[in-house]
Write a structure and sequence with these properties.
heterodimer; A: about 425 residues; alpha/beta; TIM Barrel; eight-stranded mixed beta sheet; about 30% helix; about 25% strand; globular; B: TIM Barrel; 16 strands; about 25% helix; about 20% strand
Chain lengths: ~425, ~450
């Protein structure tokens, strides 16, 4: 909490100083922009009102100067498709709010987002500043809506953009056929498609559409992406047909077997969210899972975002290590950075984050060296230009049990 | 259901005879075959091999720069500088790193294989709180593709454990990570058996939900104590039989009980305990339990709270096999600290281990150890690679009772060795060549040495 206090103090000084917005310059940084601009070997990021005001290869002046001393500055990383702030302890039912059996397309778990969850400070240790939370399961195929949250841990302002994508689960199931789930998914789109066509004929604007109808309409207009969790290549090909038929903004998540159809995914401009570590045939839908998938999809021209397999909520801080592994198996460094920043932002229409560019929120991470390397230390994290703590409950426990004391540990706070 | 009728009959008859007929001719001594499923492992053909100019982490705490490793007859022959040999094949490993083969003390490969479909759920005999009678080796599917991906990550030995639903889950087995089509052909020769025990939430949840004991943590403890009391009687009965028989008395052997054979093996010091146990207070009670019944508490696995009792674990000579960062999936996994392994390790006579319990992280135990080393070093520790490597080599070997055979690069040890393309604690590091008993079992640049499971053949 030391770092946080310092920032509060700075803010207090600032407010008494007058109306002029304070500017902060991070100078002498190796800036990895995650934009077309690529890497600026030594430059300045100028911050005002929580936003990036300038990105320059020169040294700019400001009210407050942070000397990066040649270290690496990246956009804050963005996790996705997990339940950060929606789950505290996996096996404690009352601490889980991310799934609703009969939730359906309108289920919005962001109403339950808890910015004080211990998972949030822990995720910041991995350089994460934002996250896209999403329902995991339900009776489906529609399981609900995802939302973008920032990881400031603050009440009131943490849910940045709610209901930004529709989440659908397809593929092999324990009961019944995947064909029925896929048909159900298509029928929903078709039903709304027909309804819209009829409405535009009759110019009937009296009947208020239901929430479900509004969501389906947004999807059919391509305004809201539909993220489909699916693993088998043939299922993805069926979904590409659906995309072409209805013009939806289709995103595939999971995608373990994407390798054999990488060209089709690229051609259809379908972004893919996947785990770089998935390389075992978990089931008959993922026989071609491989460590090289992320890199090969990138080379084929597919927009790739990385996510964490398994318990992605508690483990999302590992995103940078996963990116490193993706690089080790063929992804470009720039591509891997984009896969945990700008590509995630792009997929979920997060317009104000995911890269170091003028006008974006100053969500930044400063690293002692290569951010994907295990030996690298995270030195600073900023959200909206404000430095946030990376200390979590875990550190408090460590400090308690490492402190020199003659008293029971319970007295060490 | 081990108490089958014929032996019960024999016992009844013998009771009738024994009182009046101790002078009757003595029957043949009954003894229990402790190794009915013996290893048939044969090292593959090994070359004479001289690895030159590498950075060698010996697994004994030493780092040798620009060093050579000579492998003859499947064994480490020499380690040092400027070694030479007339006929050995030379591998120039300049710029590369060499470590002992990586050992995972906690794996379910083969028993929970890929694909993880219903028909493959063979790791957890969730039918009774005490299933000490099952042996997980009887579940191992050698064609699990996970063995091959683990080998590509430098895994040369691994202990397969049954799951954690039961107080006593059954016997584990230690394997050499070689491709084979029988379990026996993978079985690590002369490795002692392990017995899986489980504390805490799992057993009480599984059986509590069925309204049978245990449904609480106190129920767990009662279950262990009853079982050890029973095993003590069983051991006594056999020892009495053996002693009486030695005296020439016409005595009948006690009734065979497969479950109690295993527990007795622990009491006799032949089978090592591997205890899934997360919480500080529970690990402490398990040590008390072992003292009550006179066995060693062995290795604690998943000890998320091991850092709270690091002294106690070291004093008891117990290893702690831990994750660097898994947490939060249940209450007993809530108090994780990233420095857990480092804190346990810092105590004198400790035995800290990084384990996987995962078919994916087993492929990167080097990275898992790296996470611990670097995060701990950020917080006041000063741990070097040559020390951290022991968490996945020598300490792991000790936990499995095979440290006289593997786990370090020392003359005389089995030549289970990995050549890495760079510092293995880097996220970009890859195992290039993996040797087991001096035989090359994996080569990243040669498809001939990349084994493929029967299951994956012809799949598209």
């Amino acid at each position: 909490m030391k770092l946080f206090k310092k920032t509060l103090l700075a803010a207090a000084v600032l407010s008494s100083a007058g109306a002029m917005a304070k500017t902060t310059a991070i100078i002498n940084a190796e800036i990895h922009t995650a934009t077309e601009q690529g890497v600026i070997k030594s430059g300045t990021v100028l911050i005002e009102d929580g936003k990036i005001k300038a990105v320059s290869n020169e040294q700019l002046n400001a009210d407050e100067i942070i000397d990066a001393k040649g270290k690496i500055l990246t956009p804050g990383f963005i996790g996705s498709m997990n339940q950060l702030g929606l789950v505290e302890v996996g096996a404690v039912a009352s601490s889980r709010d991310g799934n609703e059996k009969k939730g359906g397309i309108t289920f919005d778990p962001s109403l339950a987002f808890n910015p004080k969850s211990t998972l949030i400070a822990y995720a910041r240790k991995g350089g994460l500043t934002r996250d896209v939370i999403a329902p995991g399961w339900g009776e489906g195929p529609f399981v609900g809506l995802s939302s973008t949250v920032n990881l400031s841990g603050e009440f009131g302002s943490s849910v940045v953009d709610s209901q930004n994508a529709i989440i659908v689960n397809l593929g092999g199931t324990k009961d019944g056929s995947r064909a029925a789930s896929l048909a159900k998914f298509i029928d929903k789109l078709e039903g709304q498609h027909t309804k819209l066509a009829k409405k535009s004929d009759k110019k009937d604007e009296k009947a208020d559409p239901s929430k479900e109808e509004r969501l389906l309409t947004a999807a059919l207009k391509g305004e809201k992406p539909i993220v489909v969790r699916v693993s088998r290549a043939q299922d993805m090909l069926e979904l590409i047909k659906v995309k072409e038929r209805f013009g939806i903004d289709l995103v595939i998540s999971g995608a373990e077997d994407a390798l054999p159809i990488k060209a089709e995914l690229a051609k259809a401009k379908v972004p893919v969210i996947l785990s770089a570590m998935a390389n075992l045939p978990g089931d008959f839908d993922s026989l071609n899972a491989s460590l090289t998938t992320a890199g090969e999809l990138e080379k084929a021209g597919v927009q790739v975002a990385l996510t964490i397999a398994g318990d992605s909520s508690h483990n999302v801080y590992q995103l940078r290590y996963d990116a490193g592994n993706a690089v080790a198996y063929g992804m470009s460094r720039e591509g891997a950075l984009k896969a945990i920043t700008s590509n995630v932002a792009d997929i979920f229409n997060i317009e104000d984050a995911g890269s170091i560019a003028v006008g974006k929120a100053a969500d930044l991470a400063l690293w002692s060296a290569d951010p994907f390397e295990i030996s690298t230390t995270l030195e600073k994290v900023m959200i909206n230009g404000v430095e946030v703590s990376t200390e979590s409950r875990h550190d408090k426990l460590r400090d308690r049990y490492m402190a020199e004391t003659n008293m029971p540990r319970a007295y060490t706070k | 259901m081990q108490r089958f009728i014929p032996s019960a009959l024999v016992v009844a008859m013998s009771l009738g005879l024994a009182a009046c007929n101790k002078q009757a001719p003595q029957g043949e001594h009954v003894s229990i075959n402790k190794n009915p499923y013996p290893s048939t492992y044969q090292p593959y053909e090994s070359a004479k091999l001289l690895i030159k100019n590498a950075t060698v982490l010996t697994g004994t705490g030493e780092r040798l720069d620009n060093a050579d490793v000579l492998i003859l007859d499947g064994k480490i022959s020499q380690v040092g500088e400027n070694l030479s040999h007339d006929t050995a094949r030379v591998i120039d490993a300049k710029g590369k790193w060499v470590t002992p083969g990586i050992i995972d003390v906690h794996s379910h490969l083969g028993a929970y294989p890929s694909p993880s479909v219903e028909s493959h759920q063979d790791g957890n005999e969730m039918t009774s709180p005490n299933t000490a009678y099952v042996w997980v080796e009887h579940s191992v599917w050698p064609q699990d593709p996970g063995f091959n991906t683990a080998r590509a990550g430098g895994i040369t030995s691994l202990q397969i454990l049954p799951g954690s639903a039961n107080l006593f889950g059954g016997r584990g087995v230690t394997l050499k990570n070689v491709p084979a089509h029988t379990m026996q052909a993978m079985k690590f020769p002369e490795a002692p058996y392990g017995l899986k025990m489980a504390c805490g939430e799992n057993p009480k949840r599984v059986y509590g939900s069925r309204k049978i004991s245990p449904s609480t943590r106190m129920g767990n403890m009662a279950g262990y104590r009853s079982a050890w009391a029973e095993a003590t009687e069983y051991k006594r009965a056999w020892e009495k039989y053996d002693a009486d028989h030695k005296l020439g008395l016409a005595v009948d052997a006690p009734e065979r009980d497969i479950k109690l054979d295993t527990l007795r093996g622990v009491l006799d010091g032949e089978i090592m305990i591997h205890n899934h146990c997360y919480k500080a207070e529970e690990m402490a009670m398990m040590i008390d339990l072992s003292n009550e019944f006179g066995y060693h508490a062995g290795t604690f696995h998943h000890g998320i709270e091991a850092y709270k009792i690091a002294d106690l674990l070291a004093d008891n000579g117990s290893c702690a096999a831990l994750w660097p960062d898994w947490w939060g999936f249940k209450m007993e996994a809530y108090d994780m600290v990233q420095e857990n392994i480092a804190i346990v390790d810092a105590v004198k006579n400790s035995c800290a281990i990084v384990h996987s319990d995962s078919d994916t992280t087993i492929q990167r135990l080097n990275q898992e150890a790296a996470k611990v080393m670097y995060r701990a070093n950020e917080n006041g520790f000063d741990i070097k690679e040559e020390h951290a490597i022991r968490w996945i080599t020598q300490n792991a070997a000790k936990s499995l009772g095979v440290d006289d055979k593997v786990g370090s690069i020392e003359a005389g040890k089995q030549a289970d060795v990995v050549i890495w393309n760079q510092n293995p604690f880097s996220v970009y590091a890859k195992a290039e060549k993996v040797f087991i008993d001096g035989a090359k079992v994996y080569d990243r640049s040669d498809e001939k040495y990349q084994a493929k499971s029967d299951f994956m053949l012809g799949q598209q």
